[in-house]
Amino acid sequence: MSSVATRLRAEAEALTGGLAPLLVAAEHLANSALPGAHGRRRSGSGAEFWQFRPAEANDAVARIDWRRSGRGDDVFVRETEWQAVRAVSLWVDDGVAMTYSGGRDRPTKAARARLLAMALALVLLRGGERVGLALPDFAPRSGRGQAERLAQALTATAGTQEHVAPDLDSTPSGGHAVLFSDFLGDPDMVHSALRVAAGRNLRGILVQVLDPVEEAFPFDGRTRFESMSGHLSFETLRAGDLRAAYRDRLAARKDLLAELARQAGWRFTTLHTDRPAAAGLSWLYHALAEGRRR
Amino acid sequence: MLTFGALGFVSPAILIALVALPVLWWMLRAVPPAPVRRRFPGIALLLGLHERDPESQRTPWWLLLLRIGALAALILALAGPVLNPQPSEPGSGPLLVVMDASWASAANWPQHIERAGQALAEARREGRTVAVVTLTAPPADPLAFRGAEHWQERLAALAPQPVAPHPDLPDWVSALPAQVDTLWLSDGLAHEGRGTLHDALSQRGRVRVFEPRRGVLALAPARFDGGSVSVPVRRSDHDTAPTTLDLVAIGPDPAGTERELARAEAAFAAGETETVAEFALQPELRNRVTRFQIVDRRGAGATSLTDDGLRRRKVGLLDTRDDTEALALLTPLHYLRQALAPGTDLIEDAGIDELLLSAPDVIVLADMPGLSDDETTALLDWVDDGGLLLRFAGPRMAAAGQDDAVGAANLRPDDPLLPVPLRMGGRTVGGAMSWGEPRRLAPFRDDTPFAGLSVPEDVEIRAQVLAQPDPELAERSIAELADGTPLVTRRMQGAGQIVLFHVTANAEWSSLPLSGLFVDMLERLSVSARGSQPEPADMAGTDWQLETRIDGFGQLHRASDRPAIDGAVLSDALIGARPLDADLAPGLYAGPSRRVALNATDATTRLDAARWTPGTEIETGLSRPEQPLAGYFLALTAMLLMADALATLALGGRLVRTAIAVLALGMVAIVPAADAQTGDRAAQSSPDTSDGPVDARILEATESVVLAHVATGDARVDEIARAGLEGLSEALFRRSSVEPGAPMEVDPETDELALFPFLYWPIVETSPIPSSDGYARLNRYLRSGGMILFDTRDAEVARLSGTTPEARRLRAIAAGLDIPPLEPVPSDHVLTRTFYLLSDFPGRHANSTVWVEAARADAERAEGMPFRELNDGVTPVVIGGNDWAAAWAIDEDGLPLLPVGRGMTGERQREMALRFGVNLIMHVLSGNYKSDQVHVPALLERLGQ
Q1: Is the same domain home to A125 and A94?
Q2: Does A282 touch chain B (CB under 8 A)?
Q3: Whole domain around residue A268: which residue ranges?
Q4: CA of B662 to nearest chain A CA: how many angstroms apart?
Q5: Element (H, E) at B263
């Protein structure tokens, strides 16, 4: 009996142990972004004043702004800015490849991706948006409780495959999706996911999280490269010779991803783990805001 | 042993292993360096990529070469390589080592000894008997052939002699065994008799000659040429390339220590074998020189001793004291100057004391009867120490005893500065003597210094002073007239002598000064030394004692234990007619009256290179010693292996990481040491803090403008002065941009004054008078732009009396100060307008005169300006008695400390006092900048155009 309780408690602590730092870091990051509901730059239902408009015949009398109308002969209606609420689904690649970090002072790609996703979720939740994960039974919702659930789910996920294909089947149609991965796996996975997204009228962002080592390829000499799961290996005698070819391939991969995103009406960016997370978050937030405005 | 040229191998068998190197090459090629394992997510992008150069899958060729090289070096090292392996020389039977060991060998002596040592070692290995013989010090007995070890012990004791080998065939040659090999260590010069000796030796066996090809240098005795000393330098014709040598003159300094007195260069042009080094020497230095040497060249030939020939005596002429404007030809000193100037250094002075200070060898008194007792004593002391006092008679000396003229009475009959008592009293001895015939000189006696001088017919003596008849007169007389009257008398006094010429030094009484005999006589008296070498005739029959001996290396040694040699022998040696040998060693010889240097080499020494009969085996240099090289090869192996390790790391891409690790290790090792050092430094710096207070004070004084007052020793006055400066500083702070720090008290005796622009010096009756050191500081301060405000604080009393105790004290203090002419502050002085416009300068008292440096007399009032143009200079002192500090003084709360005047008038006076203070400090700090405004209209006009 007591052993069960102990195990439960240990698990709970482990759970919160991972959860709390992610939440704290994400909160910290989210605070640096602009919080709250954001105007859609058009009139609609909202609290913010947008414009005065000459009253038309079908306008309810109650909508007439008497204070403004009293200044002249015309009658004006006060319009408020339209503030929309949409659903955003997040997806973070939990493949083993994401657990790579090229330097001791840098977080792993997975950690950075989760941090960005969580912070983005917090910012969106504060703005009253509905946020969820691209997982079954994780529909977008709003509210503080959703933040904690998101954090729990993000911390808990740990895959065993090298790369995981994004799964957008359970994402509600018409919303937004943000996909975090290094996209170094099979590009067909992205392709098919985007095809699904197009079918469901999803718009979104592809966020490629890379370690600077993966960009620079600073290796020399005889080297045996192994994939993170150890399934794949590749040996070269002079790694330095492969640098240019590798960089070319990486650039081609980025071009391919950008092209896929463009075709689907999505956006694509590459973020690096040695750069400040806040800059990435800011970019994400604004990209998302633009996407929603359309 | 296997040899290739200069390289040999002790165990050549190991070299066979070199054959295995190509096999190793093939094996090493097959093994590439181990890979590094890296996890890398981007591997998917790498798949299918290829290196540019598939060949590099094997070890690169240069790495292989490195490894093979390391291995080859190891094999070579094990084979025992030796550089310059010594081939064993053939030969058997006794070996004779002949060494020249002359003065010319000294330069190459270490090579000679080493070559002899090699020969001995070789002979010892082969069991040959050896005899070593030097030609300059041949053995008296027949040669003994002994084991080489016997001679090895004695080798180090051999030394070159300062002479050349004797030209005759040595006696020991005849006693040599029939079969003997010879090694001849030659000095490189063609000495006389060399050919015969070579023939004699080569008849008995093989003769090898060792002769380093190095030119021989020889100095000839120094000459005195015009104003400088020239030392001829000669060289043998071994090498006639242009070259430059340094020569030094060595002698005792005033403390008696031998040191280099001068240095000169001797430059040989190409093909030239003779040159001259010129030394420009002060007489004082020249007389100290004991020898000349070639720098960095050992040997008796490279050393040239100097003797009296180079010494010039210092002769002091006591100038006549009266300023009679006589013609030059009539002054007694004229002829002396003419006679002495070429051979001596003349010093002329009007005072005995000054003359004695310059330490002359001779002092000449020409017709100088009256000397004070002090002068007489001083001269006597000097004569006792070896001086030569030379006196001449004259009208005044003759008249001295005759009348009681002032000053002449000092000439007593027993004047200790006269060699003989002169006849005086009522009798006329000199001036008016009128002989019918002028007298002539008698021939000089043999026992006088003038012996041998011929007496010219035309020398006439017309008048003289007479000596008192005396038993010693004949003994003391060294020159007489034809009738036997003493003309020159001499008396020994202590170590020196006193000589009197009974005639004048000019042509008034005799024609002696006009004749050449006069010069010769002075020379004989050692007044002047002109001949560089004494005449052989003079030296014959005299004994010469060797004082300083010169050895083969050119070192000097005391040598008073040698028997004296005959002057004739020495003079023969001096002109080169007699070869030097052990008994007639080069050195400094002391004769009856002078010293003569006999040098190892002179201008006649032959310096021809040795000519050996054709076919003689000649070694010119030492064979190079065996040198094992195994160590170098092992080191090379280690270095190659280290390079290989680095290269392997670099190939594997691990070099940077390894380098960082090595660096980190190094840091760990170094950091504690650095800590220890900082600790040490902290410990070291702690004693320095004892200087802290002084530094702090200087620092404080230099951080801002600091007013200072001079401590008077009166606590109350000092306190008021400090409070006054405090008040003035406060006023300056509030009213102007000058922001002074806290005032300081200074003591001119100890404190650095340069830090303060302004000193306030209240004078009390008991103010201390500064010491000379203090005055020096104060004057330096005043000259370098400082200002002192002297305040006697007595204006109310001074107006009544004029001289107060304080004023007297001020005068006493200021006596030692460098104070310019003063004047009361003129109405247009810049002090009246540097900040405030002021007409008077009150302190606690008012209306007393304030003095400042006087303006230039030619200062003019500018057109249309109220001021004169006084643009330069800040007055170094301001002197007054208004007790300004009392008016300025404030307490801690900033309130006036002392009352000034009465009521509002008093406050007005205090304000004026403060304004004076501000003006004064402005004057100190900004100089006469306000005066420059005189030029403003002109400047404006110029700008307008």
Answers
A1: yes
A2: no
A3: 2-38+85-293
A4: 20
A5: strand B258-268
Q: Cα distance from B34 to chain A (closest Cα, Å)?
A: 7
Q: Are residues A228 and A262 in the same domain?
A: yes
CB spacing of A97 vs B46 below 8 angstroms: no
Q: How many Cβ atoms from other residues are within 10 Å of residue A136's Cβ? A: 9
CA distance B334 to B454: 24
Residue A44 lies in a domain: no
Query: Which 3 state secondary structure label does DSSP give A14?
Result: helix
d(CA B825, CA B853): 8
Q: Above 0.95 for ipTM, yes or no? A: no
Residue among A228, A235, A241 minimizing CB distance to B52: A241
A&B contacts, CB < 8 Å: 101
- Residues A113 and A210 grouped into a single domain: yes
Nearest-neighbour CA in chain A from B735: distance (Å): 54
Residues on chain A touching B56 (C-beta within 8 angstroms) = 237-238
Nearest to A221 among B39, B43, B653 (CB): B653
Q: Are residues A53 and A191 in the same domain?
A: no
Cβ of A245 within 8 Å of Cβ of B49? The answer is yes
**A76 plus A148 within the same structural domain:** no
- What are the tens digits of pLDDT across the range A149-185? 888 888 776 667 788 888 887 777 778 888 999 888 8
Using a CB–CB cutoff of 8 Å, tell me whether B47 touches chain A: yes
Span B346-359, average pLDDT: 78
Contact assignment for B46 to A241 by CB distance below 8 Å:
no
Which chain B residues are closer than 8 Å to A236 by Cβ?
46, 49, 51
The number of domains in chain A is: 2
B788 and B761 Cβ atoms separated by less than 8 Å: yes
Q: Are B280 and B228 in contact (CB under 8 A)?
A: yes
Residue A283 lies in a domain: yes
Residues in chain B: 945
pTM of the shown model: 0.43
CB < 8 Å to A237, chain B: 32, 35, 51, 56-57
pLDDT, tens digit, 9 for 90 and up, residues B319-345: 765 544 555 666 778 888 888 877 777
Return the HEC string of B635-699.
HHHHHHHHHHHHHHHHHCCCHHHHHHHHHHHHHHHHHHHHHHHHHHHHHHHHHHHHHHHHHHHHH
Q: Is residue A210 situated within a structural domain? A: yes
Is the Cβ pair A249, B45 closer than 8 Å? yes
Structural domains in chain B, sorted by start: 95-215+608-619 (3.40.50.410), 217-312+546-606 (no CATH), 327-344+355-436+457-524 (no CATH), 704-936 (3.40.50.12140)
My answer on whether A106 and A186 are in the same domain is yes
**A244 in B contact zone (CB under 8 Å):** no
pLDDT digits (tens, 9 = 90+) for B371-389: 777 888 888 888 888 888 8
Q: Cβ neighbours of residue B539 under 8 Å, at least 6 residues apart?
A: B567, B568, B570, B571, B591
Which chain B residues touch A226 with a CB distance below 8 Å?
A: 37-40, 43
Query: Burial level of A1, CB count in 10 A (0-12/13-18/19+)?
Result: exposed
Distance from CA of A211 to the nearest CA of B (A): 10
- For residue B434, pLDDT over 70 is answered with no
Helices (H) and strands (E) in chain B, counts: 25, 38
CATH number at residue A190: 3.40.50.410
Whether chain B has a CB inside 8 Å of the CB on A228: the answer is yes
For residue range B169-195, what is the model confidence (pLDDT) as tens digits? 888 888 888 888 888 888 888 888 888
Same domain membership, residue A216 and residue A125: yes
* Whether residues A156 and A190 fall in one domain: yes
Structural element, H or E, at residue B388: strand B388-392
CA distance B159 to B106: 8
Question: B33 in contact with A at a CB cutoff of 8 Å?
Answer: yes
pLDDT of residue A258: 92
